[in-house]
Amino acid sequence: MLGQHLSSEITDQKLYNKRRVLIKSAFATFAATNLALFPTNKAFSKKVKSLAYKKIDYKKTGYILNPATKYSDIASYNNFYEFGTGKSDPSKYAPKLLKVDPWSVKISGLVHKEKIFSYEELFKISSMEERIYRLRCVEGWSMVVPWIGYSLKKLLEKVQPLGSAKFVEFTTLADPSQMPGVGGFNQVLNWPYREGLRIDEAYNPLTLMTFGLYGKTLPEQNGAPVRVIVPWKYGFKSAKSIVKIKFIEKMPLTSWVDSAPGEYGFYSNVNPNVPHRRWSQQTERRIGGGIFSKRHKTLMFNGYSEEVASLYGGMDLKKFF
Ligand SMILES: Nc1nc2c(c(=O)[nH]1)N[C@H]1C(S)=C(S)[C@@H](COP(=O)(O)O)O[C@H]1N2
Ligand SMILES: [Mo]
């Protein structure tokens, strides 16, 4: 399931210490005066792109029937309501409007060592891996995405959570000056977008602190510069453009539960046996397959039962949907 580490090069302290230095190495052929013109995100893209990593053998992964969804589909069919509710709104607006540099993530709450991590610090917490995960949206479509990142656990351990912490809450950027869907009339959600996981879910090795896809840093519309991916849950649990992570004792009120508690639960594990209030969850349409392509059966926990079913032993998954 897991790809090989990209390269030890990726965590080389000296190289990643200063963003300047990185930009320089990625664009060594450009005149120094032009360096500032290149968004850092693109500079990281170039660097990551040049690193070799092992491709995954799809046949061994069993459930994956298709090759990975095309980059152009992954980066143009998005849910990122801060940029509008249309599927093409995020790719239309986010690359132009979302400022990813500088970026930081504050980790606080029930921890010994609260800290604000700069993007550069986050980037070098651990070596990165390619992970090809299925992403299943509650709306009934899915994709197969080669993400790049490291297990969220590696980051969370750094702040030394207290024993009293039972949940983590993710808060994402909500800036009306960058995000046309935030502020104004007709708000679909209460911003900022908030999501959460139980501690053991956050610490599961599948839960990915995600910096890139297809060998490049994340496109803005996919949640640049950093997001989480929780592959056994519906897509909305995978919060984009994260700015805060908080350790807390009580289950947080997430944005979707806040807006429609009868339709969205806190757990939201992919589960073909529990329909959404308004539609079945038994099958899914793979994005990029065309409108006549056959639907796939949705699998329990999105196909990751072996890895995560034990987290929910004894729980009534209809009640805790
Ligand atoms: N901040 C934020 N994160 C978000 C969303 C959003 O609207 N805002 N949409 C969610 C939903 S519903 C899905 S299906 C996935 C989509 O991720 P993708 O566009 O990278 O495929 O992001 C999730 N994360
Ligand atoms: Mo979704």
Provide a concise account of the structure shown.
This protein is an alpha+beta fold and 321 residues long. It is 18% helix and 21% strand. The strands form two sheets. Strands 1, 4, 5, 8, 9, 10, 12 and 13 form an eight-stranded mixed beta sheet that branches. A five-stranded mixed beta sheet has the order 3-2-11-6-7.
Task: Label this structure with key terms.
disordered N terminus; single chain; 321 residues; binds molybdenum atom; alpha+beta; 21% strand; eight-stranded mixed β-sheet; five-stranded mixed β-sheet; 10 helices; binds ligand MTE
Radius of gyration in whole Å, from Cα?
19 Å
Structural class based on helices, strands and sheet pairing: alpha+beta
The major pleated sheet works out as: 8 strands, mixed
Helix content: 10-25%
Shape: globular
Number of strands: 13
Q: Helix-strand pattern, N to C?
A: EHHHHHEEHEEHEEHEEEEHEEH
**Helix run count:** 10
**Hetero groups bound?**
ligand MTE, molybdenum atom
Please give the alpha-carbon distance between the first and last residues: 26 Å
**Mean pLDDT score:** 83
Low-confidence stretches at least 5 residues in length (pLDDT < 50)?
A: 1-40, 49-54
Residue fraction in strands: 15-25%
